[in-house]
Design a protein that fits this description.
The structure is a single chain. It contains three helices and six strands; from the N terminus they run H-E-E-E-E-E-E-H-H. The chain has about 90 residues and is an alpha+beta fold. Strands 1-2-6-5-4-3 form a six-stranded antiparallel beta sheet. Strand 4 and strand 5 form a beta hairpin.
């Protein structure tokens, strides 16, 4: 699976268990994180996770997996047009 991920053939899955544990595959980059928000670049676009008491339990960018714990309030994907230009262009 790690080799498929590096070649860009990664699957993207999101598994939310009881709003307290979140597992995500297909993660290519963690853009930012704190206890209220985690912003990720995934194989299917920018994903923002919001909640409270969020902390990264496991992160492996080699295989594209991330696990979070905390109370999850929302999962939002950003459209392709807002993603163009990279992280810094989204700030300004």
């Amino acid at each position: 699976m790690a080799e498929d991920f590096r070649r860009g053939e990664a699957m993207h899955n999101v598994i939310l268990e009881g709003r307290e544990r979140l597992s995500i595959s297909g993660v290519t980059e963690v853009l930012s994180f704190d206890e209220q928000e985690v912003a990720l670049e995934t194989a299917r676009g920018l994903l923002t996770v919001t909640g409270s008491g969020l902390h990264v339990e496991k992160l492996s960018l080699d295989i594209g997996e991330l696990s979070l714990q905390g109370l999850v309030d929302g999962l939002v994907y950003t459209d392709e047009q807002r993603r163009r230009g990279g992280f810094w262009s989204r700030l300004f």
